[in-house]
Amino acid sequence: MKVAVVYSGDSEARQRAAAGEPRYANVLGEFRRQGVEAVPVVYADEVADEVRRQLRKVAAAVVWVDPIHGGGETRSVLDPLLREAAAAGVFVSAHPDIILRLGTKQVLYDTRAMSWSSGDIRLYRSPDELRRGLAALSGPRVIKQNRGNGGNGTWRVEPAGGDRLRVLHARRGSREQEVSMDEFLAICASYGQVLDQPFVQPEPEGMVRCYMTHAEVVGFGHQHVTALTSAEPPTPQPRLYYPPDQPEFQAIGARLETEWLPRMQAALGVAADALPVIWDADFLPGPVLCEINVSCVSPFPDAALPKLVAATVARIAQR
Ligand SMILES: Nc1ncnc2c1ncn2[C@@H]1O[C@H](COP(=O)(O)OP(=O)(O)OP(=O)(O)O)[C@@H](O)[C@H]1O
Ligand SMILES: [Mg+2]
Fold it and tell me: What is the pLDDT of residue 74?
């Protein structure tokens, strides 16, 4: 039984992995500690055929690849390859279909009736719908492209009179700008469908991230939020990591496990075992669901590592 630890990288990353200095050395080491052979598989579209061959020889693939990187989309070649491996019996986490159901901003719309929602969530499926939504804005809203990370394609938007909008990108180092509706629609042209939720004041409490293995809370992160909060770029604050028994996060963790997850699973039609071996849910004060991350949850608290490995081993044993 062999497990692939898949992550994206260039030829230099492949060389480092071959020389025994892979990223995710901690994950590889924990598989070994639990008695399972694990190998690094460095993914890039140019080596997709080689990766396909490597995945034929493993029982499971645990994958860390962002949906966008360096301005480009990264998963259109990888996802079919992972689906093919899963169909051939390899346990794949996260499976691309689960990413689509859980790890895109659409989950905010699909679970808008739940008590973790801010309410008043809108989804624009075309540029025309987006234009109509933006034209009807009254207060500050946050719009999000369906698949993004690092604040890419997440904007705070407010009406600024006439057809003008005041906008602020969530990417690090962004400044507030005033643009026309047409200018903003041009920026959003590549986004596909767009989610629109109310702006929630994130401070002073900050954002709580619940790290999950399947349906179990395996750790927490806490970060004071700087994105979307001031017109000039503020200094980013670090995320601090905590084990699952950290007292101040027990209430939110318990609500997630007992109240929200069963409802989310029912709403999305996802069984507990089909949830990824590592994923996270981000909460703004409220608590209000900000987003769910599935495709590349890294780093994560140390306490999560043995659990994600044990869950993978258990899924292999079931096959
Ligand atoms: N509704 C909101 N109200 C206030 N701030 C928000 C809201 N939604 C998002 N933000 C801020 O914008 C940031 C980026 O948004 P979001 O987490 O949805 O996108 P992302 O690009 O997937 O981020 P990540 O890389 O953390 O996964 C959040 O970390 C938060 O600081
Ligand atoms: Mg995200």
Answer: 85
Note the pLDDT tens digit of each residue in 266-319. Answer: 999 999 999 999 999 999 999 999 999 999 999 999 999 999 999 999 999 998
pLDDT of residue 234: 86
pLDDT digits (tens, 9 = 90+) for 20-30: 999 999 999 99
From the CA of 317, how far away is ligand 2's center (Å)? 31
Judge: domain 2-93, CATH 3.40.50.300: no
Atom of ligand 1 at shortest range from CA of 151: 21
Instruction: Return the number of other C-beta atoms located less than 10 Å from residue 174's C-beta.
Output: 18
Quick one: which atom of ligand 1 is closest to the CA of 199? 3
Q: What is the pTM of this model?
A: 0.96
Best of 99, 152, 154, 203 for a ligand 1 pocket test (most atoms within 8 Å of beta carbon):
154
Which residue's CA lies nearest to atom 19 of ligand 1?
151
Q: Which of 228, 230, 279, 294 to mutate to test the pocket of ligand 1 (most atoms within 8 A of CB)?
A: 228
Q: 10 alpha carbon to ligand 1 midpoint, in Å?
A: 28
Q: What are the DSSP E strand ranges found in the chain?
A: 2-8, 37-43, 60-64, 68-69, 72-73, 91-93, 122-124, 141-145, 154-159, 164-169, 177-180, 194-198, 207-213, 216-223, 239-242, 279-284, 288-293
Cβ–Cβ under 8 Å, residues 240 and 222: yes
Position 68 scores a pLDDT of: 85
Domain boundaries, the chain: 2-93, 101-117+202-299, 122-198
- CATH number 3.40.1350 given to 101-117+202-299: no
